[in-house]
Amino acid sequence: MQVIILPLAHDVALYAADRVAEVINSKTNPVLGLATGSTPIALYDELVARYQAKQVSFRQTISFNLDEYIGIADSHAQSYRTFMNQHLFDHIDIAKSNTHVPLAESKDAIVLKKSAQDFEASIQQAGGIDLQILGIGLNGHIGFNEPTSSFTSRTRIKTLSESTVIANKRFFKDGEYQPHLALTMGIGTILNSRAVLLIATGKAKAEAVKVMIEGPLSAMCPASALQLHETATIVLDEEAASMLALKEYYRWCEQKRQQLHEGNVR
Ligand code: GLP
């Protein structure tokens, strides 16, 4: 894993935006994997700003989002489709028909299974994901792959853990229906992406980040599966990195990488 520690959350967003821009500027039909949650909002703001400054265009981009709540309409204020429209898609030149968020409005298991299969097929048809953006849950989940998710799982129905339901309660009004099920890309699906970039900021994520990077490979921390990915980059602010035992080593690695890049190895 490449672990990059930057001073502030804003620096993490800029780094991630650079990586996204690199992919969309270097490929004819770039395929992005996108995430929801509070963490990537600053990244999306930055991408919108770069689009407005004419530095990037999403005209040829195809996107796949990690997950969606089951049983609420796309138009629901808390659906991940709404989140993506509000934070990114409505403000850039991506064709909405090229944006894929799992279709999960139905509560019928057969319809949902078919939707999950179709989602996997669409990723294949698009040629696979070039860069998957990820956040991390407090319990180490990626997408909605909760602890004990199989490392080879594909897009499927997943029951949310109590900790996730509590963490996401803040987005729902008092008394409003809050889904306990989601349709999520599997860990196997995520690992098939050509590159993954996980961003984490703030003290609350420090424990999950430590277990993901320095803990054993374990289904108890779904994000630890990224240890198996050939090109996984983890970008952290100081707070999220605060519990890492090998923090100084990761900084040293980045220094050496930079020196190598500049032809200045010492
Ligand atoms: C949700 C999403 C995840 C996201 C996580 C963390 O549960 N399904 O993809 O990574 O929340 O969100 P936040 O960035 O708000 O901490």
Q: How are the secondary structure elements laid out?
A:
Layout: E1 2-6, H1 9-26, E2 31-34, H2 41-52, E3 62-65, E4 67-69, H3 80-87, E5 99-100, H4 109-125, E6 131-134, E7 156-159, H5 162-168, E8 181-184, H6 187-191, E9 195-200, H7 206-214, E10 232-237, H8 247-261
Helix pairs in contact: 1-2
The chain binds 2-amino-2-deoxy-6-O-phosphono-alpha-D-glucopyranose (GLP).
The site of 2-amino-2-deoxy-6-O-phosphono-alpha-D-glucopyranose (GLP) has 14 residues, from α5.
Summary keywords:
Glucosamine-6-phosphate deaminase, Glucosamine6P_isomerase, alpha/beta, 8 helices, seven-stranded parallel beta sheet, hydrolase, NagB/RpiA_transferase-like
Description of the molecule:
- The longest helix has 18 residues, at 9-26.
- The model has no long low-confidence stretch (mean pLDDT 97).
- The protein has one domain (2-261): 3-Layer(aba) Sandwich (Rossmann fold).
- Strands 1-10-9-6-2-3-5 form a 7-stranded parallel β-sheet, with helices on both faces. It has a 3-stranded antiparallel β-sheet with strand order 4-8-7, covered by helices on one side.
- It is globular and about 60 Å long.
- 34% of the residues lie in helices and 16% in strands.
- It contains 8 helices and 10 strands.
- It is α/β, with parallel strands linked by helices.
- The structure holds 2-amino-2-deoxy-6-O-phosphono-alpha-D-glucopyranose (GLP).
- 2-amino-2-deoxy-6-O-phosphono-alpha-D-glucopyranose binds next to helix 5.
